[in-house]
Every structure is written in C-alpha cells, then in structure tokens.
Design a protein that fits this description.
40% strand; 5-stranded mixed sheet; 4-stranded antiparallel sheet; mainly beta; Immunoglobulin-like; 0% helix; 281 residues; 20 strands
Length: 281
C-alpha cells in the first residue's frame, strides 16, 4: 500500500484531476473538508453515502414526497384528513318491533352506506334496506325484535364510519284492552264513577281525550283520570235534560311517546215523569 502526502494539488483551468481508481477507497480525515468556491462533485451516487446528511435541496425532487396529493419536505409534516360521516338524529326516535323506516340525519353520507343498529348489549342488526337521499339524509328500514335502546352505525364505501349515541328506542306501542264502542247508559245528572277504560304497555301509561266531548262541561261533563283511566262525574250530562249519546275518542300514551287511540260513547237517560192522571168511572 502506498502513501502519498501533498500540501496542494493544482490544475490548469479546464483540466481534470482523477484521484484513485475503481475499487479504491478515499478517506478524508475527520475535521477535514472538501471545499472550493464554484467547485462541485458530479455524478455522486447517493446510495453509497453511508452516513452524514445531505440537504433536502440536493435530493431528487428537492427532497419532497407526496402524501394525499400534497408535497411534504423530508423532515416536515402534513395533517392527513379523513371525511367521516356524522349522525345528528333519527326520526322517529322510537319504533315498534316490526319493520319500520327510520330517517337518519347527519353529514358526509356517500351513496349507498351500510347502516347497523347496535343494542346496549352489543348485538348488531343490519338494516333491511338503506335508501340514500342526500349527503345529509338516509333512510334505513329496521326490524328489531328486542326492546331497548340502540346506537346507529353508518359506514361509507370508503371505510369511513361513525357510531352515534343511543338515539333509537325500540318499544311496544300500548294496546287497548277495553273494547271500542259504548261504555254504557248513565242516568242524567248522575254523580259518581261512570266507567273505567284500560290498556297495556311496556312502560307507564297515560290516558287523555283527543276530542272535546267527554270532559266538556257543556256536554258529557266528566273527568278522566290520566293515570287510572277512571271516568267520573258530579253531574252527568250537565244541564242536559234529554237522552243524549256522547261520542268521544281517548288516547293512551306510553313513556316512550307511543300512542293508541280508541273511539267510545256514553249515553244519558232520563226517567219519564208523571205528567197527568186518568181516572176511570
């Protein structure tokens, strides 16, 4: 191995200097540097640079890479955004166990997304059908046999998805057990309990009148107990003095806001008074 030490190598303008041959390793002692105003290294193979740093500007493409269509310099950063759907509400918010359409409001829906209802126990039920209306509205048809509250999950075709809070309630609507029609004939001016109506449901029930007949003081003149369904009066028929049939509609509402209506009637009666006397010979 030969060793050559020189203080300087100078060349004439336009000439070139070759150091080493193929296979040689040229070492520059630590602390030393290659420098020169206007001088350059050409045809440098970056794959052979084992250590050290190279300015981004000296790399191909100025040292930038492309992420989601945006150029990012090496050492830099970029925020990668995802367009996720959102769910802001459902209509109706309470449905029965049978197949029912639910309109889902939100944003960033893409035709046609997958929609699921997830129970509080984690059971997942896919929608029977999904109809895309717009980026802010879709309609899902659900058949959910188990009562309870449900989360709604919407997944677009690109994989972006959202899961709502527990915004959908499945509950059985109340059912009347008192048959429709006449609740009986009551003596005019009667005071006391007239009749009792009843219904069943999976939560607390409340009774009310949708017409203005039963509880109208100028008509049947009765009161309806909203909790028990008991109908009472202090003067059945009020000022009326002739037999009258009062037709009215009652509604039962459960704690989930589901309702059922039924038509009933009550009839007043008045006894015939002695209006004269006939004496025979």
């Amino acid at each position: 191995m030969s060793e050559i030490k020189v203080n300087a190598i100078k060349k004439r303008n336009g000439s070139s200097i070759t150091i080493g041959e193929s296979g040689d390793t040229i070492t520059i002692t630590g602390g030393a540097a290659l420098s020169g105003s206007g001088a350059s290294l050409t045809a440098l193979n970056g794959s052979n640079v084992a250590s050290g740093t190279v300015a981004n500007a000296r790399l191909v493409g100025s040292g930038a890479i492309t992420i989601n269509g945006s150029a990012v310099s090496l050492g830099g950063s970029v925020t990668i955004g995802e367009t996720k759907p959102t769910v802001t509400g459902v209509t109706p918010s309470t449905i029965p166990n049978t197949a029912t359409n639910v309109v889902i409001a939100g944003t960033n829906f893409v035709s046609v997304p997958q929609v699921e209802a997830i129970s509080s126990t984690g059971a997942i039920t896919a929608a029977n059908t999904v109809t895309f209306t717009s980026a802010t509205s879709i309609t899902a048809n659900f058949t959910l046999p188990v009562d309870g509250t449900y989360f709604i999950r919407v997944e677009n075709n690109d994989g972006n998805a959202v899961r709502s809070g527990a915004i959908l309630t499945v509950s059985d609507a109340p059912t009347w057990t008192t048959g429709a029609g006449s609740l009986g004939t009551i003596a005019g001016n009667f005071s006391g309990t007239v009749a009792t109506v009843a219904a069943t449901g999976d939560s607390t029930l409340a009774f009310s009148e949708t017409t203005n007949v039963l509880t109208n003081a100028s008509q049947a003149n009765c009161s309806l107990n909203s909790a028990t369904g008991v109908i009472t009066t202090t003067d059945f028929g009020g000022s009326s003095t002739s037999a009258t049939t009062y037709n009215f509609t009652l509604r039962v509402t459960d704690a989930e806001g589901q309702t059922a209506d039924r038509a009933f009637s009550l009839t007043s009666s008045f006894a015939l008074e002695d209006s004269g006397r006939f004496d025979g010979d």
